[in-house]
Amino acid sequence: MESKPDTALLEPTDQHDDTPEPSEDLPEEHEGEASESEAKPKKRSRVGPGEKLSDDELVRHLAALLFASSDPLGVDRLVQLLDRPRRPRVVAALELLTQKLSETGLPLEVRAIRGGHTLMTSADLGEVVGRLGKGNAVERISPAALETLAVIAYRQPVTKAEVEAIRGVQAGPILRSLVDRGLVRVLGRADVPGHPLQYGTDKEFLDRFGLMDLGDLPRDSELARD
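Above: the chain's sequence. Below: its structure in token form.
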């Protein structure tokens, strides 16, 4: 007698999927995150009311400041005094003022000197302007003083003994004279026995010779060509 197969073994059993279904409570991707623009702090503008000045107004204000100031004014200082327009506008205004003065033929020019800018009379009228100082004329610099000044300018900081070794003559009286006239100043003391004074040029030196800074001094190659 044949036995019938157990049909229960042939019927498919229920398949149980153990993978959890996604929860409806999970937040959506990026939900609640701040946007990139909100995350970055906003930069504060440093531009001030001076930015509202027209180009012509900026040039006029700039010229007034340069004329009234007894010292050269750097670009950063001018930005402050002009109530913070953009720095490139101040640089452009300096160039425009230089151009306007040249076109009008006025005996004035913008000069870069001692780390800043100032208004000065044209060099070709120096003899005319010098008439104002008659009786109170600027003391001329002797050749010996000029030679000493050149040594200090190129070798600073330098001691009196070093100046004398280069020039081959006593330098004491000339050094004192240059210090009294504001062309040379004491920078400190040398780290050698005796700690002698060290000398360097003062701001009057830059003004007197029309230099922006010591980097404007002629180099050896330029002197050789001359």
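The domain at 49-128 is CATH 1.10.10.10 (Arc Repressor Mutant, subunit A).
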